[in-house]
Amino acid sequence: MNTAKKLTDKVTWVGKVDWELQTFHGHEYSTRRGSSYNSYLIRDEKNVLIDTVWLPYDREFVEHLRSEIDLHEIDYIIIQHAEIDHSGALLELMREIPDTPIYCTKNGERILKGHFHEDWNIVTVKTGDTLDIGQSKLVFVEAPMLHWPDTMFTYMTGENILFSNDAFGQHYATESLYNDAADQCELFAEAMKYYANILTPFSALVKKKINEVLAMDLQVDLICTSHGVIWRDNPAQIIHKYLEWADDYQENQITIVYDTMWNSTRLMAEAIATGIQAADPEVTIKVLNAAKYDKNDIVTEIFKSKAILAGSSTVNNRYLSAMGGLLEMVKGMKFKKKKAAAFGSYGWSGEAVKLLTEDLTTAGFEVVNDGCRVQWVPDEAALQACQEFGRSFARSI
Ligand code: FEO
To answer: Where is the domain boundary, 245, 277, 295?
Structure first.
């Protein structure tokens, strides 16, 4: 059980740090550094709970909360987003205080009903609506598709806190809670992985929403996310990072991602990398086997890249399944302004390169050539041709 942590005189963190979480969204997202489900208790003239925790920790959460406050003294519950990692303890909590009003967006109401099928006292709010809780006021800001239709932010006046739910979060377990107390390298790696894998498809909306919130000219002393650290030291830094990441982000990087049956496609990948390096010694090159490397880390590397090369041997007239799974994820990311090409070895029919090229195009990449194929095992001449393919690809970027 985690100890409650006082953030200000009025606000206490009452969430759960999940050090052992290894995957999230089922098995779609790897969480090798765990995560947290941040819930906040506000004590003013009225007492307010913002979000709960993931379902497996529901009883622990309610018992923990009971040690902080008589549950019947909670006047309002705010559910900023109904996904089960934040609403998971509601059933357990509402058994104790069934009449307590739950504030959420209209979409939030629909999703809560779809999840729990309960007739709770739900009050829907929209952007600009406020809730007076005493000295402070809570101001609601809808943030649809950041990253679900129901998502909203809550701003607390007086304390100058932005409760941002998933936005600005990271799947990152930390006991010290604040951004300045975290390992900065790990923190920003996890923040970028989170953006790349969860928010990239909604980048246009991220930009718009952040600019809308900036135009409100709110003083923000703390950004209280629903996962990972609370941004206390220069909270604007993560807002500016998001604006940068939402703007078709890329670094001077080319990522080669492939799968191989008997190493011929791997040899091609390495020769292509040699060619790219010869043509552009400054570019960062990553060579990643899709069957062995974490898929979310590959998505993050693609997010950072200005161009990618996708490789596979041909099997049963198709390309290999690890590349299939990866490209299915990548299509959903809706990456923009990235270039690409395909490569692969084959024995007889050799369709993989053509199919990869088609799927890269469908995924929104600007495919710059017809790709590079080698029959059977590449000999020295074929490897030289792959190097030349790499040089030419680098020059075309
Ligand atoms: Fe952290 Fe979209 O739930």
So the answer is: 245
